[in-house]
Design a protein that fits this description.
The structure is a single chain. The chain has 151 residues and is an all-alpha fold. The protein contains four helices and no strands. The protein is globular and about 50 Å long.
C-alpha cells in the first residue's frame, strides 16, 4: 500500500524535474532573445507546457497535504546545462542543441513512466492522462526536428 508521504515525495521528485526544465528553457529563451533569433516561439511553447506541468504537480502535492518543492537547478546533471551557457549555439537549427533537448525530454518521459507504480490512483491518472502525453508530444516534436536537421 502506498503511503501519502511516499506519493508526495515522488510527486516532488517529478516536480524537481519540471522546475529544472522550466529554468533551463527560460535560460535558453533569454539567450535566444539576446541573439534575436526566430526560435523563441517553439521554445516558449515547450517552456509553457513545462510550466503547466509544474502547476499541476504543485496542486497534486498540495491536495495531499504536502509542501511542493520550489526550486531546482536548470537541467542540473542532464547534459544540457553547457549548451545554455553564454556563447553556446542555442538555436533550433543546431543538431547538438536539439539532440540535447530531446535527451532531456526523453529522460523526463522515463521519469514519469517509472513513477507510475509509486503513485496513488489520482496522481497516476494525472501522470498517465496529462503529463505523459504532453511529454511524448515534446519528444515527437524534437525528434521530427532532429530528423529534418539531419536531412
Amino acid at each position: 500500500m502506498l503511503l501519502p508521504h511516499d506519493v508526495i515525495e515522488r510527486l516532488n521528485d517529478l516536480l524537481r524535474v519540471e522546475l529544472a526544465a522550466v529554468a533551463g528553457y527560460q535560460k535558453a529563451l533569454r539567450a535566444l532573445k539576446k541573439k534575436a533569433v526566430g526560435d523563441s516561439d517553439h521554445m516558449l511553447r515547450l517552456a509553457s507546457d513545462h510550466q503547466r506541468t509544474v502547476t499541476a504537480l504543485q496542486g497534486s502535492v498540495q491536495a495531499r497535504g504536502g509542501a511542493p518543492v520550489v526550486t531546482a537547478e536548470p537541467w542540473d546533471g542532464w547534459g544540457v546545462a553547457a549548451l545554455t551557457a553564454e556563447g553556446a549555439q542555442i538555436r533550433l537549427e543546431n543538431k547538438e542543441f536539439v539532440g540535447a533537448l530531446l535527451e532531456v525530454e526523453r529522460r523526463g518521459l522515463a521519469e514519469y513512466e517509472a513513477a507510475l507504480t509509486s503513485l496513488d490512483e489520482e496522481a497516476r491518472e494525472l501522470v498517465e492522462l496529462e503529463l505523459i502525453p504532453r511529454q511524448r508530444r515534446h519528444v515527437a516534436g524534437l525528434t521530427a526536428m532532429l530528423v529534418l536537421l539531419a536531412a
